[in-house]
């Protein structure tokens, strides 16, 4: 009898083959829709089709951009008084995903020997939402920088206020704003880098309070949510609505900087704003 | 089944939204004499939802900024149902800065479901307008007293409620989001608003306990009832005016730092 040319694999063999394929090998760009292999996104995690800077964790961003980084206030986390089990479960899941205890990572960083206070929000920690501990960490970031007479660079990525914490979350907008004001009054530089997504209460406070406001390509930047607006005006919004490029056109962003150029740009901006020694600030 | 707590919370929301609620313009006319409205944000717009001007409160000239809903449908459309545009927040900040220049106290009267969510507002920087109210408004060296008269919704209310004291009418609410919005975000079901209202802790009593607000005042429905409120506001503003600008700002800073 003739040997069959092709022996179909058994179910067990198929399963084994499937398991040998790594997960998340390919991905689809949420902006242009192109499907690409992850390695094509490169070290900077950028869509090879449209240049969209994909969402990354705060820890990954630190590795990508900074020459050195020393974390501060690492232990500040969601206060115990929030006991809702569903919320607690979300926090536990977020901690595992991001290796953070709140939605922002803060510390002292250097780029090309320029030292600054750095804050990096993590979109994978409950959508980077602004909890009371997030607000506390960012407030301390500005207070530390004011004390040390240093600039602040803050990467925002947030869905806005954290609903689970109610009105206390709203108060963080005011708390952080006054820390930003004190830092500014000391004549110090504050740069924000708006990452995807920067919305709601974060846009309506510290994200839009920088001396220089940069953004990543195609980042979503806005205040109200698309769905809420469409329900209000009973019309579809254009695809480029609330994209960084549109916001730039309307005058609310200084420049859009692709991820692979951010280090160079930040180094240059920081060099131009080197804080004068505290004593020399008052002019004659 | 609505629990009693949910029932109470949602009743408070409905009372805050009641069409019988005193309009901000009427309240202004009842509180001060010779009110003189001032218009425009000086960047190209004048938001009808945001009333601003100067009036005489006893021996004090004061600046008033208020977010006003409409009494009729037509008025409501003109005023975006009491939701301010970026032009409105810029106008408020401009008037507050002007007040600070002359060390005139500011009274903010709030009845808004939140900043207006439409394409125009987004394109003209709703986020930036509110962010600037917080960044610059909070540093103005003149007394700022805010009174939430009806609804106090989200960042759109906070922009005018970040001064030295925040008071609430007996039948008013203050929350991170409307109960409908909260229910829609958290449970994708806007009909669970009563449950959301209970979770949000938006009643004056709850907010007073959390030190989010400093005082709950008796509801004002007419000119007579407004006199007690006028007296209370006058007394508080006079007290705050007695502080040096440094002490005033230090006190204000401490108020928000502990949240």
TrEMBL record, chain A:
InterPro entries: AcCoA_carboxyl_beta, Acetyl_CoA_COase_Trfase_b_su, ClpP/crotonase-like_dom_sf, COA_CT_N. Component of the acetyl coenzyme A carboxylase (ACC) complex. Biotin carboxylase (BC) catalyzes the carboxylation of biotin on its carrier protein (BCCP) and then the CO(2) group is transferred by the transcarboxylase to acetyl-CoA to form malonyl-CoA. Acetyl-CoA carboxylase is a heterohexamer composed of biotin carboxyl carrier protein (AccB), biotin carboxylase (AccC) and two subunits each of ACCase subunit alpha (AccA) and ACCase subunit beta (AccD). Residues 25-284 form the CoA carboxyltransferase N-terminal domain. This is Acetyl-coenzyme A carboxylase carboxyl transferase subunit beta. GO terms for cellular component: acetyl-CoA carboxylase complex. Binds 1 zinc ion per subunit. It is an enzyme of class 2 (transferase). It is found in: Cytoplasm. Zn(2+) binds at residues 29, 32, 47, 50. Keywords: ATP-binding, Cytoplasm, Fatty acid biosynthesis, Fatty acid metabolism, Lipid biosynthesis, Lipid metabolism, Metal-binding, Nucleotide-binding, Transferase, Zinc, Zinc-finger. One of its GO terms (biological process) is fatty acid biosynthetic process. The keyword Transcription does not apply. Its cofactor is Zn(2+). PANTHER family: ACETYL-COENZYME A CARBOXYLASE CARBOXYL TRANSFERASE SUBUNIT BETA, CHLOROPLASTIC. Pathway: Lipid metabolism; malonyl-CoA biosynthesis; malonyl-CoA from acetyl-CoA: step 1/1. It catalyses: N(6)-carboxybiotinyl-L-lysyl-[protein] + acetyl-CoA = N(6)-biotinyl-L-lysyl-[protein] + malonyl-CoA. One of its GO terms (molecular function) is ATP binding. Its EC number is 2.1.3.15.
From TrEMBL, chain B:
Keywords: ATP-binding, Fatty acid biosynthesis, Fatty acid metabolism, Lipid biosynthesis, Lipid metabolism, Nucleotide-binding, Transferase. SUPFAM superfamilies: ClpP/crotonase. It catalyses: N(6)-carboxybiotinyl-L-lysyl-[protein] + acetyl-CoA = N(6)-biotinyl-L-lysyl-[protein] + malonyl-CoA. Its EC number is 2.1.3.15. Residues 1-239 form the CoA carboxyltransferase C-terminal domain. It is an enzyme of class 2 (transferase). GO terms for cellular component: acetyl-CoA carboxylase complex. GO terms for molecular function: acetyl-CoA carboxylase activity; ATP binding; carboxyl- or carbamoyltransferase activity. GO terms for biological process: fatty acid biosynthetic process; malonyl-CoA biosynthetic process. Pathway: Lipid metabolism; malonyl-CoA biosynthesis; malonyl-CoA from acetyl-CoA: step 1/1. This is acetyl-CoA carboxytransferase. It comes from Schleiferilactobacillus shenzhenensis LY-73.
């Amino acid at each position: 009898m003739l040997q069959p040319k092709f022996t179909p694999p058994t179910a067990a063999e198929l399963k084994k083959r499937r398991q040998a394929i790594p997960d998340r090998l390919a991905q689809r760009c949420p902006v242009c829709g192109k499907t690409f292999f992850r390695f094509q996104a490169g070290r900077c995690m950028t869509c090879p089709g449209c240049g969209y800077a994909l969402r990354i964790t705060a820890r990954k961003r630190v590795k990508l951009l900074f020459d050195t980084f020393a974390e501060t206030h690492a232990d500040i986390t969601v206060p115990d008084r929030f006991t809702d089990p569903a919320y607690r479960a979300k926090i536990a899941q977020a901690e595992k995903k991001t290796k953070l205890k709140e939605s922002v990572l803060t510390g002292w960083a250097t780029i090309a020997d320029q030292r600054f206070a750095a804050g990096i929000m993590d979109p994978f920690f409950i959508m980077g939402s602004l909890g009371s501990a997030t607000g506390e960490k960012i407030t301390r970031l500005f207070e530390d920088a004011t004390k040390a007479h240093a600039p602040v660079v803050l990467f925002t990525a947030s869905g806005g206020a954290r609903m689970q914490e109610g009105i206390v979350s709203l108060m963080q907008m005011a708390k952080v704003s006054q820390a930003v004001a004190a830092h500014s009054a000391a004549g110090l530089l504050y740069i924000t880098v708006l990452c995807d997504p920067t919305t709601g209460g974060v846009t309506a406070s510290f994200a839009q309070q920088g001396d220089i406001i940069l953004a990543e390509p195609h980042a979503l930047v806005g205040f109200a949510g698309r769905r809420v607006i469409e329900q209000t005006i009973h019309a579809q919004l254009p695809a480029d609505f609330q994209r960084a490029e549109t916001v730039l056109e309307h005058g609310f962003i200084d420049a859009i900087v692709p991820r692979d150029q951010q280090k160079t740009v930040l180094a240059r901006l920081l060099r131009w704003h080197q804080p004068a020694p505290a004593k020399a600030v008052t002019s004659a | 089944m609505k629990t009693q707590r949910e029932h109470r919370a949602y009743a408070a929301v409905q009372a805050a939204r009641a069409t019988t609620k005193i309009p901000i313009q009427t309240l202004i006319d009842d509180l001060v004499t010779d009110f003189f409205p001032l218009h425009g944000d000086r960047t190209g717009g004048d938001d009808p939802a945001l009333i601003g001007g100067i009036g005489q409160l006893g021996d004090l000239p004061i600046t008033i900024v208020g977010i006003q809903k409409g009494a009729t449908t037509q008025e409501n459309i003109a005023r975006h149902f009491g939701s301010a545009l970026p032009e409105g927040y810029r106008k408020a900040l401009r008037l507050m800065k002007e007040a600070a220049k002359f060390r005139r106290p500011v009274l903010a009267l709030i009845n808004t479901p939140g900043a207006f969510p439409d394409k125009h507002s987004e394109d003209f920087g709703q986020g930036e307008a509110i962010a600037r109210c917080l960044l610059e408004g909070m540093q103005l060296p003149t007394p700022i007293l805010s009174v939430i008269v009806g609804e106090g919704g989200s960042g759109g209310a906070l922009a005018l409620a970040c001064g030295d004291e925040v008071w609430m009418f007996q039948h008013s609410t203050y929350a991170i989001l409307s109960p409908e919005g909260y229910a829609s975000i958290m449970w994708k079901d806007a009909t669970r608003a009563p449950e959301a209202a209970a979770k949000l802790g938006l009643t004056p009593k709850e907010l007073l306990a959390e030190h989010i607000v400093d005082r709950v005042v008796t509801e004002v429905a007419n000119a007579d009832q407004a006199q007690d409120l006028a007296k209370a506001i006058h007394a508080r503003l006079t007290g705050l005016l007695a502080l040096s600008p440094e002490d005033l700002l230090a006190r204000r800073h401490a108020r928000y730092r502990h949240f």
